[in-house]
Amino acid sequence: MSEKLLEVKNLKTSFRIKDDYYAAVDDVSLSVNKNEVLAIVGESGCGKSALAFSIMGLHNRAKIEGNIMFKNQDIANISPAKLNKLRGNNMGMIFQDPLTALNPLMEIGDQIGEALLLHNKDLSKEKRKDKVIQLLTKVGIPRPEHVYEQFPHELSGGMRQRVVIATAIANEPELLIADEPTTALDVTIQSQILDLIKELKDDMDAGIIMITHDLGVVAEMADRVAVMYAGQIVEVSDVYTLFESPLHPYTRSLFNSVPNTAEAQSKLHVIQGIVPSLQKLPREGCRFSARIPWVEESAHEEHPELHEVSPGHFVRCTCYKHFNFPDSSKEEQQHGIS
Amino acid sequence: MAFLEVEDLKVHFPIKGGIFGRTVDYVRAVDGVSLSLEKGKTYGLVGESGSGKTTTGRAIIGLNKITSGKVTFDGNDISNLKSRSEVRKDVQMIFQDPYSSLNPKKRVIDIVAEPLRNFEKLSKKEEKIRVQELLELVGLSPESILKYPHEFSGGQRQRIGIARAIALKPKLIIADEPVSALDVSVQAQVLNFMQDIQQELDLTYLFIGHDLGVIKHMCDKIGIMYKGRYVEEGTTEEIFNNPQHIYTKRLVAAIPDIDPKRRQEQTQFRQEVKTEYEQSYNDYFDDEGLAYKLQPVTDTHLVALPEKG
Ligand SMILES: Nc1ncnc2c1ncn2[C@@H]1O[C@H](COP(=O)(O)OP(=O)(O)OP(=O)(O)O)[C@@H](O)[C@H]1O
Ligand SMILES: Nc1ncnc2c1ncn2[C@@H]1O[C@H](COP(=O)(O)OP(=O)(O)OP(=O)(O)O)[C@@H](O)[C@H]1O
Ligand SMILES: [Mg+2]
Ligand SMILES: [Mg+2]
Q1: What region holds the ABC transporter domain (chain B) (predicted)?
Q2: pLDDT for the residue numbered B279
Q3: What domains are there in chain B, each with its CATH number?
Q4: In A, which residues are within 8 Å of B191 by CB distance?
Q5: In this structure, is the dihedral angle defined by the CA atoms of residues A231, A233, A239 and A241, taken in order, positive or negative?
Q6: Is A169 a member of any domain?
């Protein structure tokens, strides 16, 4: 049942800025089993897409360190040709940004057809078209025959995203990385897409990495959740435990920021401070400490580690034991336009 | 007359076909939309993907040609291009796609300062300070000004777009899914911020979105679109507590539940609404699968149903 599909060990992904390398993913280890959804949540810019791109081997200019084991094969260091084949057949990715994933000069039908060819290069033109139309229908695109001949710029945002989804699932991958797969979609289509992903998981035993900032989607989809902050995993647990008793101050702040349906038009909780840029990322001590300045320095570890607080539930740093929301954090810094 | 008044707006795109590339049909992207927006209020536009929300917004601001209908802003007819140039400064748009809406070859300072350069004469130093202030307002560090869009994450890019949209202190902002690409904390920050400047500048928002939690939080009034037409319009309370159209009901049922323990129930409830949707489809949509004309339920609540009698 819980057969390991992907295991990432001590992954470090660094981008070169001027003359130095800065790690956007900094010592991340995680695993995904067959028939399992691992959700990754975290602040914008914390390295989720960089992590996904690293696993897929899509960074061409970044420095990648560590191991990425896919079905017991280290894919961090295999030839581009082998990787390409793996990507077309066994691993699929739904890109966060549909426009960069799509070729602006190519008709939709040809783009998806191309993905099918990767899997089976003998597929006849007619068969390919049938399959593409089937896929477009599956992702809920109305009038698929018409869309087949359209170009990306002629489609709405959500339609483009669904084309990317159709491409990613075309070959029924064993591992699907979905980077914000439903952010551009209305909720009815979203639930249809989520059902599709569940199907891939349940029927094909696929492993899914689901990157999202919609905690509702996490609640509905995930088996386990990893919370990232500033390039690191700060908390990981099964979904029920995490939603019932989130521990890390960042995770708790996250839950507090969700628009509370009961108090419409009131102020939402905001985490103090700004997201540090890659060069300014704190590299020492507890990386979240600057965002919770009211917590005493002694509460943090010098070299924060992941602690297993209950089976399968890990939290980084000891500061969670001493964390409380200050009353003043409700009246956030006053914004104004001058 | 309301601050923004859209009357029977239609935007049709031609479908070309055959070897001569003649127009064989039209995509009726927006097919008879009317809405009115009071000053200082937030109007939510939600609906199916591809239902014409972005096209409606783009038509109002003049980025899509209007096939027919009328748009009045602050008493001025802005349906045609000529009359529009005067209000260009007052109506701004935050674009749905933070990737393609930012010129990849320009630095952040040039992107954000662009509207300032068109309308205000600032010295280089003043401009830099203004841009840095704007970036800080949207939660980006001041040193970001010299970077290029590709050096930012998706959410960070969206905030650059917001900084640009508010640079000129416009009166109406058409916000096309302004927070969809953001994580919840930054989303909270942007939403709080949008509410703050709304009060301060007496801003009016046309807020396009699909996260119904966000829509509920932000909007006074909501319009629900389906295939280019409205299926329902009402106050936020009416739409969420007393949805009348089967499509609206389905939309509300599809909102993800934040409690993982309720997965099972939620799936079941959704299935029930789906069954109801399928069974009563013909009562709510015409032969072409389009919505009927709107009928009043209350003064503020309208539902697209076949005319009685
Ligand atoms: N090619 C690149 N060169 C330099 N810096 C980069 C590059 N790509 C990403 N970064 C930086 O790396 C960090 C992580 O970016 P990433 O796109 O992984 O964020 P993310 O968690 O996916 O955010 P979001 O939720 O906004 O999509 C950010 O600080 C970003 O600015
Ligand atoms: N330039 C264009 N040429 C042809 N068709 C177009 C063009 N722009 C939009 N359309 C079509 O008009 C319809 C409405 O698109 P629009 O972008 O307004 O939808 P939307 O409601 O904003 O959807 P989403 O929620 O997915 O962003 C779609 O069928 C789309 O394919
Ligand atoms: Mg990302
Ligand atoms: Mg749109």
Answers
A1: 4-252
A2: 95
A3: 4-284 (3.40.50.300)
A4: 259, 268
A5: negative
A6: yes
A195 and A252 belong to one structural domain: no
Task: Report the alpha-carbon angle A236-A319-B191, nearest 5.
Answer: 70
- Is pTM, for the whole model, over 0.90? no
Instruction: Enumerate residues lining ligand 2, CB below 6 A.
Output: A 154-159, 184, 186; B 13, 27, 29, 49-55, 96
Residue A267: domain span: 246-309+318-333
pLDDT at A33 (0 to 100): 97
Do A212 and A167 have their domain in common?
A: yes
One domain, residues A214 and A124? yes
Q: Ligand 1 in contact with A47 (CB < 6 A)?
A: yes
Q: From A258, which residue of chain B is nearest by alpha-carbon distance?
A: B184
What is the C-alpha to C-alpha distance for residues B75 and B79, in angstroms, rounded to an integer?
Answer: 12
**Segment B144-193, tens digit of pLDDT:** 999 998 887 766 787 888 889 889 889 999 999 888 777 788 788 788 87
Q: Model confidence over A193-210: pLDDT tens digits?
A: 898 899 899 988 999 999
Give the pLDDT confidence score for residue A330 in this predicted structure: 45
* Residue B48 CA, distance from chain mean position: 12
- Helix ranges restricted to H, A279-330: none
Q: Is residue B149 in contact with ligand 1, taking CB distance under 6 Å?
A: no
> A 143-202 residues with CB below 8 A of B?
146, 154-159, 162, 180, 183-191
Number of domains in chain A: 2
Cβ of A60 closer than 6 Å to ligand 1, yes or no, is no
User: Residue A68's domain is classified under what CATH number?
Assistant: 3.40.50.300
For residues B29 and B55, is the Cβ–Cβ distance under 8 A? yes
Where residue B84 falls among pLDDT bands split at 50, 70, 90?
low
Residues A40 and A147 in one domain: yes
How many pairs of residues across A and B have Cβ atoms under 8 Å apart?
193
pLDDT 10s digits, B99-110: 667 888 999 999
> Is residue A44 within 6 Å of ligand 1 at its C-beta?
yes
pLDDT of residue A333: 40
Is residue B288 a contact partner of residue A268, using CB atoms and an 8 Å limit? no
What is the C-alpha to C-alpha distance for residues B156 and B103, in angstroms, rounded to an integer? 15
CB-based contact, A239 to chain B, within 8 Å: yes
Same domain for A114 and A195?
yes
Q: Establish if A98 belongs to a structural domain.
A: yes
Question: What ipTM, to 2 d.p.?
Answer: 0.80
Task: Enumerate residues 277 to 336 of chain A having a beta carbon within 8 A of any beta carbon in chain B.
Answer: 277, 280, 332, 334-336
Strands B42-47 and B221-226: parallel
Query: How does DSSP classify residue B257?
Result: P
Q: How much distance in Å is there from the Cα of B153 to the middle of ligand 1?
A: 4
CA A155–ligand 2 middle distance (angstroms): 5
Residues A114 and A38 placed together within one structural domain of the fold? yes
